[in-house]
Write a structure and sequence with these properties.
By secondary structure, the protein is an alpha+beta fold. The protein is built from six helices and four strands; from the N terminus they run αααββαβααβ.
Length: about 130
């Protein structure tokens, strides 16, 4: 399920998913929950974190049984993890932490998180 959901997200376009609650990937999880998991006593535990001064900070823990838990966590995550710039970036240097990004797939996270902020014709330089 994880591999399939990641591939669907990639096909749909990660820029269209980041920061949004209603996406094709989320619809698949909602469908599965409604049609196959209703009788199971599932509880979701979601955390909202960010890096501040090189420290991982937990801003919220959301526990619940339905979509509302996801929606509330998403609201806080957007406040803590999405930043708007005054102008597009002409160049970005992204650092690929070798302990976190151990594959090409994971390494792309350092890039696609910045892509939306890039100016047309902007350039990336990745460092490891």
């Amino acid at each position: 399920m994880i591999n399939m959901s990641h591939m669907i997200g990639a096909f749909y376009g990660i820029e269209r998913i980041l920061g949004n609650v209603d996406t094709p990937v989320r619809k698949i999880f909602d469908y599965a929950s409604q049609h196959f998991l209703q009788k199971l006593p599932l509880h979701y535990i979601l955390t909202v974190t960010s890096m501040e001064e090189k420290k991982l900070i937990t801003h919220g823990v959301f526990i619940g049984q339905g979509r509302n838990c996801f929606e509330e966590a998403s609201k806080l995550s957007r406040l803590k993890n999405i930043f708007h710039l005054d102008a597009p970036l002409k160049k970005a240097v992204v650092y690929l932490n070798e302990h976190e990004f151990k594959s090409t797939w994971l390494g792309n996270k350092a890039i696609y998180r910045v892509r939306q902020a890039m100016a047309d014709g902007g350039a990336f330089d990745s460092r490891k």
